[in-house]
Amino acid sequence: MARVVALLDACVLYPAPIRDLLIQLAKEGVFQARWSNEIHDEWIRSVLADRDDLTPAQLARTRTLMDKHVPDACVMGHAELVPMLTLPDPGDRHVLAAAIVGGATTIVTFNLKDFPDHLTAPHDCRAVHPDQFLLEFAVGAPERLMAAVRAILARLLNPPLSFDDYINVLHRVRLPRTAGALAAMTDDISS
After folding, report:
1. For 31-49, what is each residue's pLDDT tens digit?
2. Rounded-to-integer distance, Cα 130 and Cα 17, Å
3. Nearest by Cα to 31 from 125, 126, 108
4. How far is Cα 50 from Cα 52, in angstroms, rounded to an integer?
5. Contact 120, 126 (CB under 8 A)
6. Is residue 22 within 8 Å of residue 8, measured between CB atoms?
7. Cα angle vertex 94, ends 90, 98, to 5°?
8. CA atoms within 13 A on the CB side of 80
9. What share of the chain is helix, strand, coil (3-state, %, to 5)?
10. What's the pTM?
């Protein structure tokens, strides 16, 4: 079975807990992640607008690490396709263009209304909410999803997070179904 190729919209690369989980899964080969320099620029602008405690240099480091740990994720050569695409918000056309050029069949985004099926399907692509996208791994590859969560928890040392705290974080970042599925997995393991 071929791995899913998914374009990650800027809104799922910030907040950090969603980005970390998606990147960890991509790094482990659970799916092939795609993004573009424009998407990088967009999520970084959002972070800087919300967080005056972070610097452009810190976020540039995160961007570099993303590109390093998920090789071939950054899509290039899609700019000429942008004017030929139609979406409700013309500012989102670069996302669909990157998905098409990057061979993505899925755009992972909170902004489903900005990528309606009738405009993405002709390009063999669909928009999926990140909670639904991650839930598919909870069903289809639960051990790999749990391994990704364990890897993230092992890295989070300042401050460290318990598994229950992490589940609460996932609820806060609007991933309630994924959080519930992970909690159920640990209930099954501990029973």
Report:
1. 999 999 999 999 999 999 9
2. 12
3. 108
4. 7
5. yes
6. yes
7. 150
8. 1
9. 65, 10, 25
10. 0.95
Model confidence band, residue 169 (pLDDT cutoffs 50, 70, 90): very high
- Rg of the chain's alpha carbons, rounded to an integer? 17
| Amino acid at residue number 23 | I
pLDDT at 188: 52
Domain boundaries, position 167: 1-191
Which of 143, 147, 132, 140 is CA-nearest to residue 178?
132
Measured CA to CA in angstroms, residue 171 lies from 17, 119, 185 at distances of 11, 30, 16
Domain count, the chain: 1
With a CB cutoff of 8 Å and minimum separation 6, the contacts of 72 are 32
Is 48:166 a contact under the CB 8 Å cutoff? no
Contact assessment for residue 24 and residue 151, using Cβ atoms and an 8 Å cutoff:
yes
CATH number for position 119: 3.40.50.1010
